[in-house]
Amino acid sequence: MKVQYESQRLAIWYFIVAIALLGAQLLFGLIIAYQYLNPDFLFGKLNFMTSRMLHINAMVVWLLMGFIGGIYWFLPIETEREVVGIKLAKFGFWALVIAVTIVVLVYLLKQIGSADLFTIWFITEGREYIEAPRWADIGIVAVALIVAYNVIATVLKSKKVTGMLIVLMIDLGFLFGLYLAGMFFTPNITVDQYFWWWVVHLWVEATWEVLVGVLMGWLLMHLLGTPRKIIEAWLYLEVALVTATGVLGLGHHYFWIGTPEYWLGIGGFFSAIEPLPLVAMVIHAIYDAGMHKLRTVNKPALFWALTQALGNFFGAGVWGFMHTLPQINLFSHGTQITPAHGHLAFFGAYMAINLALLYFILGQVRTENKYILDSKAWKVSFLLFVFGMLGMTAALTVAGFAQTMLERATYGSTWEAYNLVQSHPWLSQAYKWRFFFGIIFALGYPFLIYDLLKIGKNPTLLKPVEEELKEG
Amino acid sequence: MKVGWLEVVIATVFITVLLSLILARGRSWLDASFWKIPAIISPIVMGATLVVLTIDSLSKVAIGKGRVPSPTVINKEIGYVYVEERQRMEPVVGNKEVGLFGRVWSEPEAKELIKKGKLVIQSRNCMDCHTLLGNGAYYAPDLTKAWLDPRWENLIKDLVNAQSKEEAMKVWLMNPDKYPTSSRKMPNLKLTEEEARALVAYLKWMSAINTNGFPPNFPEVKPTN
Amino acid sequence: MAQEVFYFLLLSFFMVLFAGAYGVGYTLGSIKGLPGVKFLSLLLGGLEVFCAILLLFSNLLSIPWKALILTCGFIYFFLPMWWVRFIKKFPSAD
Question: C13-48 b/e with 16+ CB inside 10 Å = b?
């Protein structure tokens, strides 16, 4: 493998671990999806709550590791020098891997603790997505500071301060800083959830979106040859639109947690316009892809990048808008509509860009832009992932609709209503379909692994770049 | 001056657009340097608004300030009724001191119970099966109004042979796998008796939080005075 | 009530779905010079506005919210046209 900088070698390590964690996410996802069908499966040994925690934590960690990998890949290219503090960065990588391993082992073997601060510090914090015990939180912050140091020190040393780097640095500051908002204990559940949403929402609907904007910008610059000035203009526009809608769109999580009523209006209004930047990005993606007639040196990277725009819009925009207005969310809050939206949104907005970045890196390393990166396997995994995800989303949407209409709007949201509706045929059938499509999705994984190991290694299978351009 | 949500919305959008146009005047809107301005102004204006609203919200949701009740509410009766003027359901607290687990808890005692209860919820990872205030996982029922759920009196009390609702809750929570209510069983989370009591107190306290009407349509509960 | 909730969910879903489909179709039609595709996409845009208008009849929405939906409905209709024009105007550095 020919990489120009040590930082890029590190990027590849990050992606390797990320893809391994994706596998873990899929494994635990299948377990919990199956438990919906057969609740006795592993009951008492590996309960739903533990597998679910592993499913969502694996997701958050692998996506973040992919982003960090993307940063370490593009940073030396952007600054035209090796990353400053590369030894520290490698140490940070291993520290993260070891910390994640310990946390996962404790999750699996200990699972719960007694009701004291020791549990919070060393076993689990028990708050969705950020269950990691406090010691691990501190570890994550430390690694984040290392990444931030790498970026800032390299930029300063290189004296190359591009617009994209400025956006990246400011965004990373907020992204890592926001994690601190989740690092405290309070008996007041309203305050707990108020700041918990600062981490979750202002991550996935603000700082993560901007980070993806930067990474996508670099990807398109190097993949399609789009000029920097244009990428920068669109990045600034995206930052403006995403922050204008997403920062106060945070209020759509403050409808029912005990906070004042004005959040119903503020949150509902801003989150209703959150899809607008996403429509604009889809239009732009189609425009760019169409103008290049989908011709590129790296087919999978382009396709996954396109999927990012479309998936982000459909998962986050369409499914999000569907139940964002408080008048309707009163009934649908906490029903299966939420994971229907969540799965498609995360797949589109974040899994897709990570795969696009990974394929781009593979293209750079294996073909050195002499050949068009392509294969049969990536197409198979792509179709399995997309088809599987759409199926899961459709199934959960049906379940969510029924749950909203029956358990909430008709039967009064009681324990009995919950049980009754969970065994309603619309839901029990939907869970079966969800599991079936989950298997389809998971089948995309072995094809992905095979492809990542093989693609680009055999030049006889690839078209030379000149030939592809000649066909234009 | 009464500032409502609509005013905040209009003001923030208006200020962002206006400031951006003023500071970017002279630059072509087809140039990157133009869009740098709203990229800076928007997060600042929206962020500042968020900070101001946070300070306001936090003052209103502090324990005992109205929306989030004082811990001593566990000594009272909690209800949940539909309020016509506001077109939503709201929690209502009775005046009688009925106590919990057969005694009236002092303010410091109740505070300890609530703190312990929250540690129970976090240490046992309730949020990865249940939803609390609608947030969490969807494998098990929402717990916002668990204290007020009719099932404790209709079914569980007799099932576990308890004298009161809170006793029923405590006994059930210590051995939920012994008393399944559906094919999806709750696992035994090894609660001590003290932890179970704290958890019940927490659920009672949580049910008195004003959640702007979530969950809707819930069967009304009226305190006896 | 359940029916009211159902139609609201459905219309909100289709409103943005049509908006996106219209955006995709309109963009493809514009850059490939396919007037047929462009026309079909405008039909989808029309359906999107129609969904927005139907939502206005919901009893769940008060006046400010109806205004918001109506405004969104129209922005979604004009957004693809404005955006494609905007993108085309952006100077490419060659």
Answer: bbbbbbbbbbbbbbbbbbbeeeeebbebbbebbebb
CATH of the domain at A301: 1.20.210.10
| Chain B interface includes C90 (CB < 8 A) | yes
Q: Does residue C94 sit within a domain?
A: no
Taking the Cβ of residue A167 and every Cβ of chain B, the question of whether any pair is shorter than 8 Å is answered with yes
| Residue C54: domain span | 2-89
**CA A391 to CA A394: how far, in whole Å?**
5
Lowest-pLDDT range of A28-32, A222-226, C47-51, C69-73: A222-226
How far apart (Å, rounded) are the C-alpha atoms in residues A171 and A168? 5
By 3-state DSSP, what share of chain B in percent is helix, strand and coil, each rounded to 5? 50, 10, 40
Tell whether B106 and B170 lie within a shared domain. yes
Listed residues A161, A188, A206: the one ending a domain: A161
Q: CA B104: distance to chain centroid?
A: 24
Q: How many CB atoms lie within 10 A of CB A457?
A: 12
What's the pLDDT score for residue A472? 45
Distance from CA of A464 to the nearest CA of C (A): 25
Task: Please name the chains neighbouring C, where neighbouring means 3+ C-beta pairs under 8 angstroms.
Answer: A, B
Last residue of a domain, one of A128, A161, A194: A161
- Minimal Cα distance from C76: which residue of A? A276
Look up the pTM and report it: 0.94
B81 touches chain A (CB under 8 A): no
Range of the domain at A426: 274-463
